Predict the 3D structure of the following.
Amino acid sequence: MNILLNPGPVLLTKRVRESLLKPDLCHRESEFVELQNKIRSKLLDVYKLSAEKWAAVIFTGSGTSAMESMITSLIPMHGKLLIIENGVYGERMTKIAKIHDINHIVLHHEWGEEINLDNLNNELQYHDEISHVAIVHHETTTGRLNNIEKIASVCKKHGDISLLVDAVSSFGAEELKFNEWNITACASTANKCLHGVPGASFVIANRDAVSSMSATPARTLYLNFIDYLDAQDNNKTPFTQSIQTFYALHEALEELFEQGGWKNRQKKYQNLIGLVRTEFENLKIKPCLKRNESSCVLNSFYLPKEISYQKLHDELKKDGFIIYAGQGGLKKSFFRISCMGDIFEDDIKRFLSAIKKIVV
């Protein structure tokens, strides 16, 4: 079995994999409703959110489907969205806004660049009609962990500007302060830090913010968050869900809590990626970002001299390890390593031994 060092899908535990073999269910029966309700409750429990103030809605689809639901469903027709870009996934939010004709402006940065708070402040000051700011928490293009706390602080200076957060690659392993950071909603997925399987995603949203959208016409049918919330709050689902991926997400959440929650998962990731960074330093493989700029979930590194990504990938795959290329124009200059999933110190040590054979 290959050890997946890519940022999702992740290696599953035996327990999560076996949960896929549970009985088939009809999505209109009480057994499915019970499963759906348990997952919704547990998603809120990850960050100790009140069910009276917050709602979790589950979709069948990748993290991008949850992100598209969040952006299309929670911006009122009279609102305006500012999208902060510093990687592929920030730019994907802009594509969503364009496709659905959502009134927006973009604060662009180069991939991996730190968010310029002065420029953010200037945009909010100049465009006082902005109602929401969208930001990727962990931009896996480079592994940068964007500082949501500082961004939220700038937004608070300009009134009640809400944050829409892409937490696809951070939910379950990085800190998220929903109330303090004025987060209206965040989107995420089962198959990254939660260690479920691809095919289930979710949005957690502030119920008051959702209720204010009741008079806004829907921009999408299948991904209309408002319809999903109404149905799931009433023990229904608007469309057929992927039952087996829901089983897996429930089991993965059970494991997360048994292992001590998101803080312990963060510590595990920090330890594993710390082993990688330390040994890479000895091998003269340079990180693209400093430790305090990077998420614990994924780090990016410059390719060793005279070794192409394809050679590095193919040689490591022979030894049972899958790494990830840089995206776009970065694919020829760096590679990425993630330690999510059912991975342990012995796996990382074997990976480091394998890479030594290539670069030394």
Notes: The longest strand covers residues 54-60. The two ends are 26 Å apart (CA to CA). The domain at 14-258 is CATH 3.40.640.10 (Aspartate Aminotransferase; domain 2). The chain has two domains: 14-258, 261-359.
